[in-house]
Amino acid sequence: MRFWEKPFGKEKPKTICGEIHIINDRCKGCSFCIEYCPRNVLEVSKDFNKKGYHPPIVVKPDMCTFCGLCEMICPDFAIFVIEKEDE
Amino acid sequence: MANNTAQLQEKSHPMEDLLRMDRMPHIWCSGCGLGSAVTAFVEGLKKAGVSYDKTAIVSGIGCTGRVAGYLRLDSYHTTHGRAIPFATGLKLANRDLTVVVFSGDGDLFAIGGNHLIHAARRNVDINVICVNNFIYGMTGGQNAPTTPLGAYSSTAPFGNYEMPFNLVGLAAASGASYVARWTTMHARRLTDSIATAANKKGFCFIEIVSPCPTVFARKNNGGTGLDMLKEFQTRAIIDHDADPTTIPLNMDNEIVCGEFVNDDRPTFWENVQAGIKARLEKFANWEEMQSNSRKISHKKDRKYTSSRDSSIMRRNT
Amino acid sequence: MFKKSRLIGEYFMQGDIACAEGALAAGCRFFGGYPITPASEIAERMAMRLPLLRGVFIQYEDEIASIAGILGASWAGAKSMTATSGPGISLMTENIGLGMMMEAPCVVVNVQRGSPSTGLPTSWGQSDMMQARWGSHGDYGSISLVPNSPQEFFDLTITAFNFSEKYRLPVFIMADALVGHMTEKVVIPPVEELEIIDRKYTNKKPEDYLPYDYGKNLIPDFAKAGDGYRYHTTGLTHDKRGYPNMTFECQNELVPRLVNKIKNHVDDISLTEEYDIEGADVIVISYGITSRTILPAITMAKKKGIKIGYLRLKTVWPFPEEKIRKLSKKVAGFVVPEMNLGQISLEVERCAHNDSIVKLVPHPGGGIHKFEDVLHAIEEVAYGK
Asked: By Cβ atoms counted within 10 A, which residue in A68, B76, B142, B312 is the most buried?
């Protein structure tokens, strides 16, 4: 007897994924995006930008769920997310 | 797939159509909540569906006053405290405009306090967004009418000895149709609030509690902007049913957020139109109405409000 | 609305009412004011008339809100006006500076009363003349018109709107409580017979438009809110884009232009009334109600054989410097009766510059000159000391 049905045609459910774009030279290193990402996708980088701040880098790109909170909370318009297209 | 920023620079930030990109980066400090407030505003405007060409933004002086300079709308950077009457004039002269006043707590409630309460009383159809950072940021950290009791500022080196204003309470008591308070951390709810206010007629007031790391936090052991946001997160509760006059902001108490007032009251212009219509129905022509007004003091029927005595000598100052 | 909303004809009208009617004839459709004696009648008349002409009347909570409101209305495209007296102008001064900096056309009526401070609310004076030029901080050009009768109050209000629209700045009408409250015959012509100037709107596309780009006449083209131009304007020193640019270069380009756009057009703006100037030994320079109250003195001086000329300034600011300089070389002296303790006489002295005597006949306000004082001054100048 089969107890568990696989969703039709798919191995596992497809979730939305986001593609994060960081405009490095606008970042002022406040770390709001890093702190408030619900899935800890971002971390402080060791590099400097033009102004001497440490912008964020994406460390877990596949964990991004396109919630958009980083884009909304960034005070410097330095990060935004677009929906990743299906492969 | 690595999201390497170098590969993806050719895409532009989705808000760039509403920002003056030739003036970026903006002057606000690292960790300041103003950028988040502007982001929420831009998203809120997009969500509200108002025409950008018909939206005008007026701001006063201060850090928040610089918002007008960064938004790609018809924007006016006016004198300290006078953004609201300017916006009233703008709105009444062209009632198709959506007029937003974006200014700070000192600009709107200290020097501009009188204008705010009267605009709220009249229920002029403008949206006022007040970014409250508890201090006068641009000029270096002086006391504001919202600085909490006991907090330090450059003009209160022994601690502030004045009770702060409760901004939402004042706006609600003055008669605003829509009153809400959020912090910059409540990004989505703030966006929704702004969208509601933009489409709502009447005087809409939104207080945005914002971190000021450079002066307020530094003088009050508040840490960085992020530390202040985390503090907001701990202290903030959402209670739409709270009575706005009972929820002040002090150093350590709860930051009660929510949409406290959401009424439908006739706006100033609606009242004007109703009054004119009612009066015109009584008179056959203008001359009769005019002569009626001038002779009012001689009429036995005293139900009109005016009892002018036209003698110059008895006029008061 | 009602028929006969536009008054045409001959009326026996108070000066303040004539001012309000002049504003309406010029196309003013926004009035923001605050009550103050002796200008309250203007607000009251506008309150009654504007709604019937689809205009907006709002009584603001104070004078500061009034001036801010009319600047806002001006940017929305309306011709706007406020009316107040000395104490109100003092309150409005900061935002008048904003109007000058932003180059917003509007009209500010100052029905002068006894000053300083609360002064003589129900009496008149002329002691705010320098404030009209130099009141707000900083350098800027200024235009002030001074009527001397209700008819002229009507006419100069229209002229004030024309100047404000043409030169893009707040224009003062410096009436006084006597002219404001006197009732005389006022003839209101049909609108077709009036010259009405509107501000010059830009015909550039939004992407090419620079809000403070100017041509030879130093006056930028206007764009109102809601037309899709999405410009920025500020009270900070700004460049042609309207963006704040707090550098010396920008200040050097902007502020001299604000001064020169008036200075270069003095011939167009300066309005005077002259009698017997040619060949005169003494010229009496006056403005406002004083120009009427001293007429007996002039008649008497003529009877005594003094060659006396009469120069009435309808435009006090910009001051007609060239005219006075030229005249000062030809006459023995000027007599300047005014209802203050020496304001425009200082300008006359500056322009006369030791070429001729300038005799001030001061009056602190609250009454009119005794014509004997004026006659005495004329004789002093004519016969020399």
From this structure: B76
**C-alpha–C-alpha distance, residues C359 and C339, integer Å:** 14
Q: What is the pLDDT of residue C191?
A: 82
C touches which chains (3+ CB pairs under 8 A)? B
Q: Which of B74, B92, B317 sits opposite C73 (nearest CB)?
A: B92
Domains of chain A, each with CATH number or no CATH: 25-78 (3.30.70.20)
Instruction: Tell me the CATH number for domain C272-383.
Output: 3.40.50.920
How confident is the model at residue B293, as a pLDDT?
52
User: Residue C76: what residue type?
Assistant: A
CATH 3.40.50.920 domain span(s) along chain C: 272-383
Q: Which 10-69 residues of chain C touch chain B by CB within 8 A?
A: 29-30, 32, 36-37, 40, 48, 51-52, 56, 58, 60-62, 64-66, 68-69
The verdict on a CB contact (< 8 Å) between B19 and A53 is no
How far is the C-alpha of C129 from the C-alpha of C360, rounded, in Å? 15
Chains C and A touch (3+ CB pairs under 8 A): no
Q: Tell which residue, B258, B85, B34, B76, has the closest CA to residue C70.
A: B85
| Site from B13, B26, B47 to mutate, A interface, most A CB atoms within 10 angstroms | B13
Is the minimum CB–CB distance between B15 and chain A shorter than 8 Å? Answer: yes
Enumerate domains of chain B plus CATH numbers. Answer: 16-268 (3.40.50.970), 269-314 (no CATH)
Q: How would you write the pLDDT of chain B (317 residues) with one tens digit per residue?
A: 334 444 445 678 999 999 999 998 899 999 999 999 999 999 999 999 999 999 999 999 999 999 999 999 999 999 999 999 999 999 999 999 999 999 999 999 999 999 999 999 999 999 999 999 999 999 999 999 999 999 999 999 999 999 999 999 999 999 999 999 999 999 999 999 999 999 999 999 999 999 999 999 999 998 999 999 999 999 999 999 999 999 999 999 999 999 999 999 999 999 999 998 888 888 766 666 666 555 433 333 333 333 343 333 344 43
Closest residue by Cα to residue A21 from A69, A75, A51, A58: A58
Class of domain C9-193: alpha beta
Strand boundaries in C105-169, DSSP class E: 106-114, 120-124, 143-145
Residue of B68, B73, B312 with shortest CB distance to C181? B312
Query: Cα separations (Å) of B138 from B29, B141, B143, C250?
Result: 11, 7, 12, 22
